[in-house]
Structure formats: structure tokens, C-alpha cells
Amino acid sequence: MSHSERAALPADRSAAIEQLMQEYGTKVMHLAYYYLKDRHLAEDVAQEVFIKAYRNWDSFRGESSAYTWLYKITVNLCRDKARSAWWRRLLPSDDPRSANDELELSTADDGPEAAAILQDDRDRLMEHVMHLPEAYREAIVLYYYQDLSTVEIAEVTGQNENTIKTRLFRARAMLKEMLLKGGVAR
Amino acid sequence: MSDRFDADLKKVLKESTAKSLEGWEFTSSMRQTVLKRIAEEGEEESQPPAQPVPLRRPRQVAAHPALWVAAAAAAFVVAVNMMNIDMGLGGNAAKKENAAPMAATSQSPQENVQESAPPEDTAVSSGGVAEKPTGSKSADPAQSQGAVAMKATLSTESKNEGLADTAAVGPAAPARIHLQMPEVQTAALAVQVKDGAGIAAMAVPVERLAMVRVGMNAAVRTQRTVQFLDAEGAMVREQELPEGAGQMLAWNGQIVTTGGRELVFFSTAGEVQRNLTLPATPDGFAVSPDGRVAALLSTALQVYDGTTLQFEVPGALPLAFAFGPDGSLAAVVRESDGAYLKLFGQNGSSLWRAKLSVGGTGITFAAGGDVILVGGEAFHRSGQPLWRAPLPAQDVFTLGPDGPVVVRDAQQTISLLRPADGTEIWTVQHPGRQTIYTAISDDAELLAIVASVDEVAAVWVLDRAGGLRYSERLTVQPSGVAVEGETLFLLTPEAVETRALPSR
After folding, report:
1. Which of B443, B424, B430, B431 is nearest to B471 (CA)?
2. Given A150, A154, A163, B446, which residue has the most CB atoms within 10 angstroms?
3. Distances (CA, A) of B169 to B165, B228, B256, B356, B368
4. Which helix (H) or strand (E) holds B334?
5. Which residues of A43-79 are buried (b: 16+ CB within 10 A; e: fewer)?
6. Nearest-CA residue of chain A relative to B5?
7. In whole angstroms, what is the distance from residue B121 CA to residue B68 CA?
8. Residue A36 has what pLDDT?
């Protein structure tokens, strides 16, 4: 949020949070869903996000946009929950591979083949995205669904921009491979 | 990547998302819930802390004057106890003078913490001294002894509640415990980094690891192995498992974990005791006291007796489930009109269901199985609602079969409650931090909490009475924590680290 954007919000903190909820509530909840894979949990987290935003309102100085600030809170909350041993019991198992795993992916240009399959197999795209390891899923969702730039994703996730670009590249390659092979990329 | 693939991916992803999440919005009622909680936070600054809301009138204990004295004295015990720790605020000279030597970690806290409103009669001040509205008192061991005796009287008085009572573990008035970010870091302590053998070579994501203590031994879960450690933290055996890190828990002196479709029971020495091959990789499991297994698959929650499928829980997939001491199975199921707690008998027969109103997903049996806690609501095993907490509980577990319950709510507050009526024994508040892990010792006497704020993590160990036994600021966020006897175990990417807890 720019300084002028923040100035456009009500001066009262509760009213400002209410406005942010109306504007970004659904997107925050959807983002949480991509991490937690459970609507019930995502609803809880989304509410926590705005409570935390309320508590930390004074620390929000408008140096970043409202949505990157809210997304950053969301990402941190989801990560912490996903790390919690109890939440791990509740959450569906993630793909066993991690962002640090070595990938054996085709480096060939996508060409028209993957794009064509993408159109034909769009129903399975969400399933493929949800099967990506968290770091890749995070990059894909923030970039393609939430429309964040790589700079903004870096800010939200606390990574440097090059890392985000690498993750996006790998995530796209994995998605492409999933689409071509009809399953999880190996 | 081609521009076309990129553009198509964006388009298809948005369309797919819109389709799959269509109609699922952050509703007005959700906004109102947030605003209500925000308003409550504002009120808490000037009012006593919120208490659980009893759905039925709790049995009243006669307000004998001696009990009021006992209550004040019992709170004083906690205050004295807390004087022995430095969890207070920086710059409180009186507190520092009174603080007894504690863990080397508790020196000169650098971070101020806001004080919540005290209970009506008694409060623990930032300096750890019980205060009455008219002033403060200094610690007096003789008074403490007297308070202990009176606390026992309180316990006796409330034993007639019908449900297992846990009043003996705490004062009548809940203590507010403020966890201070410790200043002393790992490097400043005499850290005992054990051999850890293969642990140091593990090239797996930290998030995939977990640690479980069984007696003096421990097991560490990696992506594809379980490593068994002796009391010194050295690996004595490693067992490979099929791909896919799974949940791991301790059961009846054994360590149970999954790898792929396999659910394996290990002895603490790493020997396979039995295994169960499931139809698919489970998303979670629980083991009943008699050894039956409930496994959450993508299609249903299945219960196995040995290797035989005993029954499937009908309806939607549970959000959470737990076995009771008698082998009954409680499950939280989300249906079209809301979430329900359902109880099933040993044979899978449906006993009752109750609609949940608070939310949250933690579930556990307490009070010897007489109480089921789920998401901040408590039900008698008959299905009768008992009480509900003001906020949804994300995690709940019991300190021992008949002990009090630990509840972590959505605001990251951790409270110790009496299961019979939901009254607080003590509450840990660490504003702005995220609880990462909590763990209890096998004897249910110690609770370890790992929390983080931004990039800084810290660990605290509390005893049942709410006394701080240990605290430490960590340079690396651990991926597991366990506490046992006089030792705290922290699992880091490099090793299992141990800390000797200071004597009581």
C-alpha cells in the first residue's frame, strides 16, 4: 500500500481492518487454502490474519502494499501452522519432495505441446498445483493467482528475488512435466 | 518457458481456481467474528481476562472465608514460584532483586511485554509478585507452605464435582504468565551437542523431521527413515521406511509411524513389533489403548483391529479424531450445516453427535475419558455440553489421563484448564509470537513451548504449576522438541541438542 492508499483507509484501526477484510478477505483465505489444503483450517487462518493485522497495525507504515503485508502475515501463519506437529497430523500429507531436492526436469522449450495439453487438461491443473512441494506451490499461487511480481513474492516470502525466479522456473517445469506425463513429476 | 505456456498457465490457473473455489468467500459472519474478537481484545486491556463460558451452572463451592484466604494464598504460591524466574519486564529492579537464580538464560530480558488485566482479586505482576489492588507483598516461604496446605483443602472441596478434578495442580485464580524472549542464546550456554551419528548428514528439509520421546529413548523421523537414539542422544539404530514422511507418535512404550502405506510399530530399540499395510498412504492415524488403529485415508476413516478392517466411519472425512481410554472414537466431521462432534463405540456404532459452535480442530479425551474436548468446547461422554472457551482451540491435549488440559487458541494463548468446568489454572501469553511446537514430558509434569517472532525463536519449559523451569533464545528454529526428566531435547538440522534443566 502506498502512503496515499493507507491514507485512504479509515483512521480508526478497526474500521480499517474491516475495509481490508472486505477487500482482501477472500484472497487471503484462498491463499491460506493453498498452503493448508483444508477449507476449514483456511477459514480459521484468514480470521487470524486480520486479528494479527489489527494487533500489528502500528507497525504497518505503508512502505509496502496492503496486500503484500496481509499476504506476508498469511504466509507466516500458514508456515508456522504447517510446522506444528499437531497441524501436521491434521493436514494432508505433502509431497515428499522438497524445494531443495534435485530435480530432473526437461529443459527443452515448452513449445505448443504443453500449452495444448494445458488447455485440454485444465481440470487437473489444480490437482497438479496442489501436489507441488510447498515452496513451488507458494511461488505459483502468488505469481499466477495472486498476481504478485517476483519482487513482491520475495518480500512476502522473505526470500530473495532470484530464489523466487528459480522456484517459478522449476515449478513451471514440474507442472509442464505433470501435464505431459499425466502425473507427478519425478 | 514459452510466453504462450506462461500466459495459458495464468489463465487456466485463474479459471480453475475460480471454478474449484467458486462461492467460497470470506463472509460477513467471518468478518463479524474478527471484529468481535478485536473488540474483545480492546476490552481485555481494561477488564479481567475472559473466562470459559459455562453452558450449565457449575456446582458452586461454598464461599467459606477460609477458601477465599486459601485462594489468595494459592495464587501467592504461584507468585512466589514465578519470583524464581525471570520472565518479567526489563527495567523492573524489584523483580531482579527478588528473582532467584534460574536457568542461565533468564538474565536481563530485553523485550518488554504488555501486561494483561489482572484477575479481580489477585494478579501476577510483571515482576512475578502477587499483587492485590492495595499493594504488593514480598515472598515468604512460610506463607507458601501454608498456601500449599490450603490449596490441598481447595482440592478436597471440589472433589465432589462428579468428574475427575484437577484442582490440586493450581490456584483458584488463574495466573498470567508472560513469556519473555530470553536474551541468552545457545552459544552462551554449555550446549551438549551429542554425536547424533547420521543425523548430521541428513540432507532433508527441516520441516519433515519430528522427534518423539519414549522413556529415556527417542526416535527421529526423517523422510525415509526412523532413527532411534539412546538416552545420550546417540543413534543406536536406523530403520528405513517407504517413501513419504509420516506422522509419528508414542504408544504404550512403542514408537508408531507411517511410511507410504505401511504403519509400523517399533520398540524403542528400533525393532519392528508389528506392522499394518493400509490400502493407501494415510493422512493421519491414531492408536487406541487396546492397539486398534484409526487411519485417515483419502476415502474414509478406517479402524483396524490388528490387520483386520473393523469398520469405516460413515460420512464426510473427519477433520480430527481421537480414541478415548475405553476405545471409543471421537471425530470432528464437517457437514453441510456445520461441524459436528461424533462419538462411535468400540464396534463402530454411532453413539451421538453434537453440533460444534466455537470452531477449532484440536481434539482429545480428558478426565479419564469422561470429557471430550474439541476446538474449545467440552462435552461429557454422554454427549451433554459442559462448557466452551471463548476462542477456538487449535490444539488440545491432556497432561496425563486424569490431568488438566492444555489448550492453544487461535490467538496463540496457551492455557491449562480443568476439564470438568473449563476454569483456568494458568495461562501463557506471548503476544505477537507464533507457537511452533509444544511437547509434554511422559510424566506430564513439564511442558515445553517453542515459539517464534519474525526470525527469532525461543524455547520455554514450564512445570504444571506454571513455574518457568528454563528458557533460551535459539539461533536456529528447531524442527522438534521433547522434554523428559531433567533434560530438554531440541532437534536441529545438524543434531539432537540437549539442555540440562535446572534443579527444581
Report:
1. B430
2. B446
3. 10, 34, 31, 29, 16
4. strand B329-335
5. bbbbbbbbbbbbbeeeebeeebbbbbbbbbbbbbbbb
6. A115
7. 10
8. 77
Over the stretch B344-385, which tens digit does the pLDDT of each residue have?
Answer: 999 999 999 998 876 666 788 998 899 999 877 899 999 999
CB contact under 8 A, B410 and A90: no
CB B450 within 8 A of CB B437: yes
Query: Other C-beta atoms within 10 Å of B455: how many?
Result: 7
Residue A177 confidence (pLDDT) above 80 = no
CA distances from A63 to A5, A60, B166 (A): 10, 8, 50
d(CA B34, CA A52): 10
Please report, for residues B265, B278, B438, the alpha-carbon distance to residue B293 in angstroms, rounded to integers and kept in the order given.
11, 10, 24
ipTM surpassing 0.85: no
Helix (H) or strand (E) holding B28: helix B28-44
Q: Are A142 and A148 in contact (CB under 8 A)?
A: yes
Per the structure block, which three cell numbers stand in for B249? 507418535
> Residue A4 forms beta bridges with which residues?
none
**Residue A80 and residue B319: Cβ atoms within 8 Å?**
no
Rounded CA-CA distance B256/B472 in Å is 30
Average pLDDT score over chain B: 66
Q: Determine, for residues B339 and A175 on separate chains, whether the beta-carbon distance falls below 8 Å.
A: no
Sort out which chain A residues have CB atoms less than 8 A from B339's CB and list them: 40
Q: Name chain A contacts of B34, Cβ cutoff 8 Å.
A: 17, 21, 47, 50-51, 54
Q: What is the secondary structure of B186-223 as a DSSP string?
A: GGGS--EE---GGGGG--S-GGG-EEEEETTEEEEE-S
Residues near B54 by beta carbon (within 8 Å), at least 6 away in sequence: B386, B387, B421, B422
Query: Which set of grid coordinates corresponds to residue B494?
Result: 545438524
Measured between beta carbons, the chain B residues lying within 8 angstroms of A140 are 13
Contact assessment for residue B220 and residue B209, using Cβ atoms and an 8 Å cutoff: yes
Q: Would an 8 Å CB–CB cutoff place A3 in contact with chain B?
A: no
Q: How far is the CA of B73 from the CAs of B76, B119, B120, in angstroms?
A: 5, 14, 15
